[in-house]
Design goal:
This protein is α/β, with parallel strands linked by helices. The chain has two domains: 6-45 and 273-364, Aspartate Aminotransferase, domain 1, CATH 3.90.1150; 48-270, Type I PLP-dependent aspartate aminotransferase-like (Major domain) (Aspartate Aminotransferase, domain 2, 3-Layer(aba) Sandwich). 37% of the residues lie in helices and 15% in strands. The protein is built from 13 helices and twelve strands. The strands form three sheets. It has a seven-stranded mixed beta sheet, sandwiched between helices. Strands 9-12-11 form a three-stranded antiparallel beta sheet, with no helix packed on it. A two-stranded parallel sheet has the order 1-10.
Length: 367
């Protein structure tokens, strides 16, 4: 029998939202009528200009991509006022989380993060043989005082999402800056800003300022969300040169494929178009807020493209709601695996998708 490393024993594999094709086959539904609101994806496809760039690159797929992502880094550096030596590009921001764990965590060290939060933090920590230190949320938000109290001389990394996943809550960056000032210089503070472009707060870009000012702060962003490029997997990190050089020692060559690099570069040039997508997301959130209120169903207000919906008071048992919605062609994320029992996490869809979700949810409240 193969001997696996002991660290695997405490790790539960990440379970993604069910794909549309699987739900369609399982319940005998028309795939074109199944809507997926489970994975915090954009309901909109990539911009047409991005699709054109991808198509033109097809004939070059016999070549390796640029292992350094030079063009994309140059554009990101100009956008964010940093140098290319302070940028690293990954196969989605999840790959960056794994790299950061690789360069600072080992047995006997600790990682601090909220509970609940993005499940990959704990997986990456345990895979390194380090100890996860989980700090309960205060309500639905990161509790910075308790997180700070959890940091010890064994702490090597603190993971902090803003907007928070899975609740969608948002912390002012003045509070995060004060928190960062108390983190030891030999401990990384990772600001996971995967949903940053959806946040509509005036200080939403101040995390980048922190990364420029503090050598132990890393900011992660992704093209998977508002840009609609989940399927290509491309994210990036802004950090000190020291952190970037450490990551390069564990980064595999050619880690970001050619199509992803070309698509992200083009998408970045269309930044003004994001206003349209933010406006649509804002309208979708309002539609869900109003619809849920009309049904007498609670929810958590969000600064992202997803929200927690309280299904504990429905006539259908809360743990059965995700399955019952799937039978009706609506895929949502169960709350219990996210440490949010009694809730489901719902992505903001198109106006039509939101309407269908509300209708199907009302059916479960009248059973």
């Amino acid at each position: 029998m193969v001997r696996f490393v002991k660290q695997l024993e405490g790790i539960t594999p990440y379970v993604a939202g069910a794909p549309i094709e699987l739900v369609s086959r399982r319940y005998g539904l028309d795939a074109e009528k199944v809507i997926k609101l489970a994975s915090n994806e954009s309901p909109l496809p990539p911009f047409p200009e991005v699709l054109e760039v991808i198509t033109r690159k097809f004939n070059d797929l016999n070549r390796y991509p640029d292992s350094e992502c030079r063009d994309l880094k140059a554009a990101l550096a100009e956008r964010h006022g940093v140098t290319t030596d302070e940028l690293v590009v990954g196969n989605g921001s999840c790959e960056l989380l794994i790299w950061l764990s690789l360069i600072v965590l080992e047995p006997g060290t600790e990682a601090v993060f909220s509970d609940p939060t993005f499940l990959v933090y704990e997986e990456a920590t345990c895979a390194r043989g380090a100890a996860p230190v989980k700090v309960p949320l205060m309500g639905f938000a990161n509790d910075l005082n308790s997180l700070a109290a959890a940091v010890t001389d064994r702490t090597r990394i603190v993971f902090l999402t803003n907007p928070h996943n899975p609740t969608g809550s948002y912390l002012p960056y003045s509070d995060i800056a004060a928190f960062a000032a108390g983190i030891p210089e030999d401990c990384l503070l990772v600001l996971d800003e995967a949903y940053n472009e959806y946040a509509e707060q005036p200080d939403s870009q101040d995390g980048l300022k922190l990364a420029r000012e503090r050598a132990n702060v890393v900011v992660l962003r992704t093209f998977s969300k508002i840009y609609g490029l989940c399927g290509l997997r491309v994210g990036y990190g802004i950090s000190s040169r020291q952190v970037k050089e450490a990551i390069d020692k564990v980064r595999q060559p050619f880690n970001v494929n050619m199509l992803a690099q070309a698509a992200a570069l083009k998408a970045l040039s269309l930044e003004d178009r994001l206003r349209e997508r933010r406006a649509q997301n804002r309208a979708g959130r309002r539609q869900l807020y109003d619809g849920l209120a009309a049904l007498g169903i609670g929810y958590v207000e969000t600064q992202s493209n997803f929200m927690l919906v309280d299904v504990s008071g429905l006539s259908t048992p809360a743990d059965d709601v995700p399955e019952e919605l799937m039978k009706r062609g609506v895929i949502v994320r169960p709350g219990r695996p996210l440490a949010c029992p009694g809730y489901v996490r719902v992505s903001v869809g198109t106006g039509e998708e939101n309407r269908i979700f509300l209708e199907r949810l009302a059916e479960l409240n009248n059973g």
